[in-house]
Known about the structure:
single chain, 10 strands, globular
Amino acid sequence: xxxxxxxxxxxxxxxxxxxxxxxxxxxxxxxxxxxxxxxxxxxxxxxxxxxxxxxxxxxxxxxxxxxxxxxxxxxxxxxxxxxxxxxxxxxxxxxxxxxxxxxxxxxxxxxxxxxxxxxxxxxxxxxxxxxxxxxxxxxxxxxxxxxxxxxxxxxxxxxxxxxxxxxxxxxxxxxxxxxxxxxxxxxxxxxxxxxxxxxxxxxxxxxxxxxxxxxxxxxxxxxxxxxxxxxxxxxxxxxxxxxxxxxxxxxxxxxxxxxxxxxxxxxxxxxxxxxxxxxxxxxxxxxxxxxxxxxxxxxxxxx
Length: 303
């Protein structure tokens, strides 16, 4: 019988998102392919240190006990030779990763479709934007993020922003165009109408299915962390109810900085469409930028 990824939660991840290859990447960015390959080969027996998304990947793979529920695939601009060190590092860290695609500098996101990927994590903003444009949940990892703490070793903890991440940017467009008062009024009038889905709804659904299957040793805890406040909270909650998706925690912060709240939640990863929120969060937790919605169509970095 042919191998299949059907029914599994599939995470495609770049080597820099999974491991700390920042020093090696300096050579890669200089365009010195030979020097980069040589350095990776010289360090072949030296396992790379964990990267920003390491904790998330390790915990998700722990769901593979009596059945294969999660598949993690390396999807990297690395060359195949340098890919040897990526797999060696995964083995040293006891990560059961069997599949990888290495494209030697070319954009790898085209392989997301045959992989049936639920999530793509990369350190390349261009690849992430292209993946989002093709309909995949994707985020640019903040390579300067702190590492996740190990307070909850048997619980995958993931936090999401709402607008332009779980939900569409419909309401965010109103805010950008007309300000907070208009946004609040718009959301109050449309409280009974579910928000259109954003790029990360399919991932949340996949996590919800994984949570329902459950294992004796691993669970998932999710949080909505949003700048919304009452009365705009109503529509967000009703939308999740309409989707038949349960979320464990919801934080309606009314514009307060998210970083300290995330520090208390201790997610293995946080997703947000605003670079300001991502930078704040990265001081406390692993974080990634979802290059989606109207805030990311503005020239220059979004506020």
